[in-house]
Amino acid sequence: MTLTPRKRTATSARRTPGVTLIGVLVLACFGAYTVLAAGGKEDFTIAASPSSQTVTPGQAGTYTVTVTRVNGFTGSVTLTAGSLPAGATASWKLSNGTTSNVVPPNLNSATLTVQTATSTPQGTSQPLITATSGKLTSTTNVTLAVQPAAQPNFTLSASPASRTIVQGDQAAYSVDITRTGGFSGSVALSVTGLPKNATATWNGSTVQIDTAGNSQADTYGLTITGTGTINGSTVARSASVTLIVQKNQTFGIAGDLAARLAPGRKAPLDPLLTNPQNFDILITNLAVAVEEGTTKPGCSGSQNFKVTQVPAGRYPITLPAGQSRTLGQLGVADGDKPQVEMLDQPWNQDACKNVSIRLAYSGSATK
Predict the structure, then answer these.
(1) Residues 297, 308: contact at Cβ < 8 Å?
(2) pLDDT of 182 higher than 50
(3) Binning pLDDT at 50, 70 and 90, where does residue 20 land?
(4) Which of 216, 222, 207 is nearest to 167 (CA)?
(5) pLDDT of the residue at 39
(6) Fewest 10 Å CB contacts: which of 34, 133, 275, 302?
(7) First to last CA, the chain
(8) What distance in Å separates the CA atoms of residue 209 and residue 194, rounded to the nearest whole number?
(9) CATH number given to 153-246
């Protein structure tokens, strides 16, 4: 038996050069679009700032006009202003200071001045700014508001709005006068509503209120008035402030000597001080004395005892509002406290054995 071998057909993929070549052609076409891009038309635009001005008749409003050149434009630009209110005129000055309405290629801005007349009517207008160069034109509008001239006037205010003091104390208020509309006249100041027996003293625009020790404790509404002359007429303006007068309560001093004394011996006294006010007080003086009478008739307080007071340089001593504090708690050292001493006298002092002395206190303080 004879075998006949089969023929096998081999199939192989072939790259077609044309495919690659087509890709090259496609890429070349896309590149051609980029090369052929074209520029825009030469031109310019204008803008003005500020967009609005407010003046009174006879005053001038100014605007800065900026020229922006695009697409290679290098020409001069002529500026004009129209639609002005009645009686108003326009003038131009370039950014280099030259009076002209033609902006040359080397400059980019100019200032427009709209001068109103005293007869220019009140109201708001929209001046039109036009820029031309050959056949090219650009426009923009600005706003000009003409308002009536301010009338001469003044106002006044006072500070602080409220002050709190005690009877016999003083309070000061500052008055501020604001003149407007060209008013430059003098203003006379006065104040009303004071407590009974209180006085007011002026130092420029500051008023000082001095109350009396018997001025009634109360809340007072004070009216500060300024009087001036405007256009031949007397004009008054006022401001209100509050004065609160509180009862002048004395601060308290109390305390006993903690140590026992003997002839020639002394000990510091640490009295308790009480502030009934709702504000801090400054104690400017404390005085301690031994009363003449003691618990034994034969022992004289003044002859057998003495007190060394707080040194003058240790004052003032601040006592917080509504608080009770000893001198030690207020930072006064033992050496600066009042010193109570039993004197070592040349006579027999047996009458003072086991005696109790009485101390008398007094003092003064300010706010």
Answers:
(1) no
(2) yes
(3) very low
(4) 216
(5) 61
(6) 34
(7) 143
(8) 8
(9) 2.60.40.10
43 token code pair = 């031109």
CA–CA separation, 301 and 349 (whole Å):
12
List alpha helices for the chain, DSSP H: 17-35, 301-304
Q: CATH topology for 252-366?
A: Immunoglobulin-like (2.60.40)
Rg (CA), the chain: 48
Residue 117 structure tokens: 């007349």
Question: Is this model's pTM higher than 0.70 or not?
Answer: no
Taken in order 325, 327, 330, 334, the sign of the CA dihedral is negative
Q: Which CATH superfamily is domain 44-146 in?
A: ntegrin, alpha v. Chain A, domain 3 (2.60.40.1510)
Q: Which two tokens stand for residue 125?
A: 């207008």
With CA atoms as reference, report the closest residue to 367 among 249, 259, 241, 280.
Answer: 280
Distance CA 146, CA 118 (A): 10
- Number of separate helices (H) and strands (E) present in the chain: 2, 28
What are the angstrom distances between the C-alpha of 208 and each of 240, 253, 285, 365?
15, 32, 26, 21
Tokens of 96: 């280099």
Return phi, psi of residue 301, to 5°: -65, -40
Beta carbons within 10 angstroms of residue 226's beta carbon: 21
3-state secondary structure of 281: strand
Instruction: Tell me the two tokens of residue 75.
Output: 């020409």
Amino acid symbol at 117: A
Question: How do the domains of the chain map onto residue ranges?
Answer: 44-146, 153-246, 252-366
- Condensed to tens digits (0 to 9), the pLDDT of residues 199-238 reads 999 999 999 999 999 999 999 999 999 999 999 999 999 9
Tell me whether the CATH fold assigned to 153-246 matches the one assigned to 252-366. yes
CA distance 274 to 363: 12
Distance (Å, whole) CA 152 – CA 207: 26
